[in-house]
Structure formats: structure tokens, C-alpha cells
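Handout, page 2. Input:
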Amino acid sequence: MSTQLGYGGVLVDSSRAIDMYNNTRVIYKLSNPVRFNRFTEIQFSFAYGEGVSSLKLCVYITAELDCPSSCYDIPPTETSPLTISVAPMISYQEIDVSYFGFVQEADNAAVGVHSVLRDMKLSTGIVINAYENGKCTDPNSRLIGGPERLEKCICTDGFLSSNGGKVLRNIDACVSCVDTLPCALPRNTAADVCSRVSISCTFDEWLW
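Output:
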């Protein structure tokens, strides 16, 4: 979909390998979106090339591709294969993902610098409900009263639910207003919720 290749390039072959050369950034749009949630994990193998200063795997939730949190910076000290959580990259949302990106930054753009990512696999990690055993599991949420069949956890001040409100569904998490507001969630909804300060409230007041 979009490339900033500089003196480099990307080669994808039938062996499920993505070869990156020199300074390059490439973004691919999937023909069919993939449903992600905060428990989704990506496993892949990688090999850092000599002279590579940064190697990133990116998951974009919209065509607005300038959100820094959408990319995972692969530490050169990590052992391959590596399994990572996509939750921070998608702001803990349940959402269709259509764009994947790969970034390599090379020292002085030396000719022949080469890294490889291969064997990418998606899986579901350990699922934790927002409310379990009479407690809220998210550290940035608190328990409120309500009928047994309804949600019982809301995000504390300075946080909003990854569904855009305050009440947590099982698939949601409380995300920081400061980290989230610039790019990851719908801005109008995020700004409205984050501007509120709650001293006390009833359960019904949060069901909007």
C-alpha cells in the first residue's frame, strides 16, 4: 500500500519469509481483514542483520498510519522465535485489522544490511474476564453496584474503556487517556470520557 524504501527494499517469498534490506518501511493492506482483540498474540521468527539499529513489526487499525504505539520494536537481544501481545498496538480493542507494516532502520544505510522475519502465526493467549470471583481484574478499574447479569467494573479517572466508554465488557481493558487520545481511539469519544471526573456515581449513570 505504501513504501518508503530509500536505498532499501522488501522481498516476500513463498517460504513465508519477509526479507528487509537497508533503510525501509513498507505497509501492506490485507485482502480480508483479521479480527483482533486484546488477547491476540503474534508469534514469529527473526534474524537481525549486522548494522541494523531498529526492526519493527506494525499493526495498524486504520489507514492513519502515524500512531507510534502501532509498532513493536523488536529487541535485538530477544530470542527467536518471539511471541508478542498485540494489545498495546490496537489499544486493547476488539477490532478488524487491515494493515500490517515492517520497518528496518540501518546504521548509515550501509549497502547489504539485511534482516528477516518469517513464520508469522496468530493465536489467542490467556483470556481474563473483566470481572472474576467478585473482583475487577483490571488494575485501573473499580467495582460498582448493579444487577448480577450486568457489567460491574468501570475505569477509574484518567482511564477509559477500550470500547470507548467507561464500563468494561469482558473483552475490554482500561487504557490511559494520556497515551490513547492522540491516535488510537475515536478522538471525540475519548475526549468526552476523559474530560469527566467522577467522585461517586451509580451503576445506571455509566450505562450510556
